[in-house]
Amino acid sequence: MRKSLPDEDNKIMKKNIAIFASGRGSNFLALAKESQRGRLKGANLALLVCDNPKALVISAANKLKIKTILASRSMFPDKKAFEDAIIRHLKKNKIELIVLAGFMRILSARFVSLYKNRIINIHPSLLPAFKGAHAIKDAFDYGIKVTGVTVHFVDDKMDHGPIILQKEVRALEGEALSSLEEKIHKVEHSIYPEAVSLFMKGKLRVRGRKVLIATR
Ligand code: GRF
Fold first, then answer.
1. What pLDDT is recorded for position 178?
2. Measuring CA to CA, which of 20, 60, 93, 164 is 20 to 30 A from 68?
3. What are the backbone angles phi and psi of residue 211, rounded to the nearest 5°?
């Protein structure tokens, strides 16, 4: 039997990704759907890591038969033990990209350096504006007319690493917060699969704070 050449192997080899989420999981679902439609070329959605036993994302993953690891911080004596348990699962499942989607825990510098430039996050504002857990409301209350969505690599500071993609969303005069939230989430659900696909195709190069995107 003819042995396949290394290049041929690369073409068919999919990279395993893990999504980390703590809440409702709409970004998880958007990514899972794109993956099942075959639009996340080269990606195999292998794992959901969740730190919240009550999170809706767990039942979404169960329905889609996606393997789920529940690691809640209170199950471990300290943050190191908590992260070590997660790392063991990542290694066991040969995870090459970690996709944070509403994961409400800050990863340690040690964890981040272990997966340097292999962890991405989505944030519902145009970073560096409105960091933190309430970005949409903070931007709305501030009276912004343009906000948006950022996908970025994760470094050891919160909502800070090199920016991969950004897309703006306009706040209309008199618009309700709920309407702005809805528009932002809709953009998230298209921009995140796009960023994951770019990563999978090997099109992203990090140069300091800049992320270069290859066009071919
Ligand atoms: C999203 O708005 C994302 O930008 C932020 O957390 C939220 C998660 O929402 N990091 P969901 O759980 O994916 O619906």
1. 98
2. 164
3. -110, 120
pLDDT tens for each residue of 161-204: 999 999 999 999 999 999 999 999 999 999 999 999 999 999 99
Residue 123 Cβ contacting ligand 1 at under 6 Å: yes
Question: In the chain, count of helices (H) and strands (E)?
Answer: 7, 9
Decide: residue 184, CB within 10 A, 0-12 exposed, 13-18 middle, 19+ buried.
buried
Atom of ligand 1 nearest to the CA of 56: 12
Give the three-class secondary structure for 92.
helix
Q: Which residues are catalytic?
A: 123
Give the total residue count for the chain. Answer: 216
The C-alpha atoms of residue 67 and residue 216 are separated, in whole angstroms, by 34
Strand, helix or coil at 48? strand
Give the Cα separation of 212 and 191 in Å (integer): 16
Reported as a single tens digit per residue, the pLDDT across 17-72 is 999 999 999 999 999 999 989 899 889 999 999 999 999 999 999 999 999 999 99
Q: What is the pTM of this model?
A: 0.93
Token pair listed for 99 = 């996709």
Atom nearest to 29 CA in ligand 1: 13
Question: At a CB cut-off of 8 Å and minimum separation 6, what does 81 contact?
Answer: none
